[in-house]
Structures are given as C-alpha cells and as structure tokens.
Design a protein that fits this description.
By secondary structure, the protein is mostly helical. The protein folds into 2 domains: 40 residues, no CATH class; 202 residues, MetI-like fold, CATH 1.10.3720.10. α3 packs parallel to α6. The model has no long low-confidence stretch (mean pLDDT 84). It is a multi-pass membrane protein. It comes from Methylobacterium radiotolerans (strain ATCC 27329 / DSM 1819 / JCM 2831 / NBRC 15690 / NCIMB 10815 / 0-1). This is Ornithine carbamoyltransferase. Its EC number is 2.1.3.3.
Length: 257
C-alpha cells in the first residue's frame, strides 16, 4: 500500500468517523455547552435516567426492533428458501422484485407508500404500523444473507436425511435450519440494527405514543443540541456497533463453515 493510498484511506475514515468520535468525546463533557470543554464527567448519562420521554422512545425503538427483526428473519428465510430451492416458478420475477425492492427504493418512497396504504385500509398509526413498516424494509436484507448461505450449503446432508426417511418438514427443521443458524442470527441482527436506526420510514408511519428514539433525538436537536443528546447518541452508536460487529462475526463463521 503506497503512501497515497494510506493518506486517502485515513482521510476517508476521518471524514466518516471523525464526527462520531467528537460526539462520543463531548458526551463526557461536564459543561452544559456542547462546544466548550468543561472537564470529564458522566453527569449526562445519569441525566438520561431522569428523562422519561427519551426513555419511553428508547423502549418503543427496542420493542419495534425486536419484533421487526423476528418477523423479517422468518419472512426473509422463507423467501430465500423459495428463491433458492424452488427453481423457476410462475411469478418468480415479480416475487423477487417485491422482496428486494425495499432495498433499492428511497426510504421516503417506502414510508409514503406505507402511510397511504395504512390510511386506505383504515389502520391507525402506532406500534403495529411501525413493526409492519420495518419488517417490510428489513426482510430483503435477511433474504440476501440467508440466500447466500443456502447457495453454499452442502445439499448432500439434506439428501442423506431424506434418503433415511425424513419428511421434507423434518429435513428442514433438523438439518437445514441448524446449518443456517449463523446466517439467521446475522440476518436478524442486521434487521435489528436497521430498524433501531431508522428515522425516515418511522416518521411517516408512527403515531401518538409510538415515537422512536431516532425521532425523539431529531426533534430535540432541532431545538438545540445539549450534552444529554450526545450521551443518548453515544449509547445508540454503541448498541448498533455491537450488533453490526456480532453480525459480521457470525457472517465470517458462516463463510468458514
């Protein structure tokens, strides 16, 4: 690697992660002024425990992320099995577009489309609409992860189980799904991260009492930044980073296996 490449790499990483590093450092700022360093302190992390609206938003985000990731993992796995194991079938192209469409569509378009659908069917916006919207958005990502694992799976193990008399359902539950476990976990963690971090789609489909943490932080930032927001953002960054690193580790195990 030449010095030009190293310099470009360092500049790129600094541009991407420098602001996040500054946010984390100033979350430990003792001063109430976010641009003035007043010494090291964890007072703003303690202040989060007394911020009931922020804690309520965080609880909503966690509930939505857990439910959406579970549903997206189930639906994404079924979609991957259909695409990888069923060969060509009528409507395959349409089905593929429906599964992977949310990955490439702008989130504004997804949020607006879902909002119009919920209004059209008379479904009140709230926790249910948030879970449906995030499940729709995350399913395609799970399908990509699980589908990649299915393509590299040793089919002889499933064929051996079938030759020994196992029914297709038993082969799926005792052979296929255990072999897919790392990919299922990685896909679920990816869906959890995407749901937890979403702001745009949630802004369209949330309702009274279903404000998510990113929405709450965004609304507070518009009124002014304070170190408490830095502390909340740091915790969110840490949680997302742990989920991403765990998903990457599971994906690496999947590839080695």
């Amino acid at each position: 690697m030449t010095w030009v490449t190293r310099t470009a790499l360092a500049a790129g990483l600094g541009f991407l992660y420098g602001p996040i590093a500054v946010l984390i450092v100033y979350s430990f700022n003792a001063s109430p002024m976010v641009t003035v360093w007043g010494g090291f302190s964890t007072r703003w992390y303690g202040a989060l425990l007394a911020d009931a609206p922020l804690l309520s938003a965080a609880w909503v985000s966690l509930k939505v992320a857990v439910l959406a990731s579970l549903l997206a993992t189930i639906l994404g796995t079924l979609a991957a099995l259909a695409l990888e194991r069923q060969g060509r079938f009528r409507g395959r192209a349409l089905f593929t577009g429906l599964v992977f469409g949310p990955i490439v569509m702008p989130e504004v378009m997804i949020g607006l489309s879902l909002l119009l659908m919920f209004i059209g069917i008379g479904l009140d916006r709230g926790l249910v609409t948030l879970v449906i919207a995030h499940t729709t958005f995350c399913t395609g990502f799970v399908t990509v992860v699980v589908g990649a694992r299915l393509r590299g799976l040793d089919r002889s193990l499933e064929e051996a189980a079938a030759d020994l008399g196992a029914a297709p359902a038993r082969v799926l539950t005792t052979v296929t799904l255990p072999l897919l476990a790392p990919a299922l976990a990685a896909g679920g963690l990816l869906a959890f991260t995407l749901s937890l971090d979403d702001l745009v789609i949630a802004s369209f489909v949330s309702g009274p009492g279903s404000t998510t943490l990113p929405m709450r932080l965004y609304s507070q930032v518009r009124l002014g930044v304070n170190p408490e927001i830095n502390a909340a953002s740091t915790l969110l960054v840490g949680l997302v980073s742990v989920a991403v690193l765990l998903a990457s580790w599971l994906t690496g195990r999947r590839r080695q296996g």
